Amino acid sequence: MTGAYRVRHLSIRNRVVLTNKTPSGLVRGFGGPQVYFALERLMQRIAATLGLDPLEVIRRNLVEAFPHRCPAGAILDSGDYRAAIHVATERGGLAQLRHWRDQARSEGRLYGIGFAAVVEPAISNMGYITTVLSPEERDQAGPKSGAQAAATVSLDPLGGVSVAIDSMPQGQGHCTATAQIVADIFGLAPEAIAVEAAIDTGKDAWSIAAGNYSSRFAGATAGAVHIAATRLRDRLAGIAAAQLNARPEDLFFAGGRVFAGANPENSLGFARVAATDHWSPGGSPEPALRETVFWSPSVLGAPNAADEVNGAAVYGFVFDFCGLEIERDTGTVRIDKYVSLHDAGRILNPALFDGQVRGGFAMAVGAALHERLVYAEDGGFVTGSLLDYALPTALMIPELEILHQETQSPVTPLGAKGVAEGNSMSTPACIANAVADALGVAEVSLPLTPERLLEMVRRGGQ
């Protein structure tokens, strides 16, 4: 609720509204876009009211020491927000963008720069949903907290490796990342690892927290995979050590073989070692056939009596800035430059990481500039199909410059955090701030359609 800023005190008032308009549901970053639109617009309003640089207002108020406990109970696990902003502005060319703005304004054009700084929660605490209950009701129902992740790594009689994970991806590349993690541990090629991303509750390892949501894969599920594969590798090292006349801790797994570090010629094929306990189980103190791991972050407790709760296990950081021009005659927005820096801990796969960023950005551009539900005077729903509901096409998405900083999390096994939802939360506010800067207005609402912007231009900022 307080984003990336040092805020001592917080008061929240909830309002419940009954409407007969189209029901809303959970979409990417749910809850976050609304919170950060208000918070980041407020930061720019503060800057404008006090005659300060908006970026300086952001810098002055950033969280500096970690872990940091927010007033609503969130515990920001790690990061260096000031360093991230420095990297983004220097490598992203903010000084040049400001020069472009000055030049455009000198020519009478409507040009603005916007900023947004957000924290991106990942691995939801199941306990936060129980804050809808009173403390007394929670006591009667029993505490709810945590976020379980499960993974199983198995070896077959031919030495093949298979992995089952408790996530059901829809194109995020979870199977690719899982194969890479296990392949690195066993010294194999990723294509040698078979990954199943499906849950049969009758036979698979799972819990009520399983599924594909809350950016939980990189921090939780991938971490459970890493632990399971590492434990199984260590047991295989014990099997191979007896055959190679070496100590388990001196063995290496690489190139499809297991070998002694002091004598690489003293080696065995991985498949032979991995299949040993299928064919000759009597000699192993602990069978190396399968390893199932359940992992849950220790930082996720139940809500306290004051309704304070750490709603997520880890929190990434996103800093965006953009420059855009508004065409006076048409009200259209042209985004000249958009820079987004992400610190989501350890990056497991750079291509998949950037793909998630681009997906969230494209969705946010639609929310900021195009998408809206329109009703006629009689209550009829006008934009009820994709013939009338404006979704941006690929040609309507501006170029995105993605920058990285890696501050590993002390909470997750791999130091990774979530990345899938960041720009869906930061980009709408960043674009709105740039529009407010271009027009010199205090109030901005989304979506910033051409007709709405034309009206703002005609009012001359009044």
Please explain how this structure is put together.
The longest helix has 28 residues, at about 215-245. The strands form four sheets. Strands 3-11-12-13 form a four-stranded mixed β-sheet, sandwiched between helices. A four-stranded mixed β-sheet has the order 6-5-4-10, with helices on one face. The chain has a three-stranded antiparallel β-sheet with strand order 7-8-9. About 35% of the residues lie in helices and about 20% in strands. By secondary structure, the protein is of the alpha+beta class.
Average of the residue pLDDT scores: 95
Beta-strand residue percentage: 15-25%
Alpha-carbon Rg, integer: 26 Å
Put simply, the count of helices is 11
| Count of beta strands | 13
Structural class: alpha+beta
Report the sheet with the most strands, covering strand number, pairing sense and barrel closure: 4 strands, mixed
Stretches where pLDDT is under 50 for at least 5 consecutive residues are: none
* Helix coverage percent: 25-40%
Shape label: elongated
Largest sheet, spatial ordering of strands: 3-11-12-13
**N-to-C span:** 31 Å
Topology pattern, helix = H, strand = E: HHEEHHEHEEHEHEEEHEEEHEHH
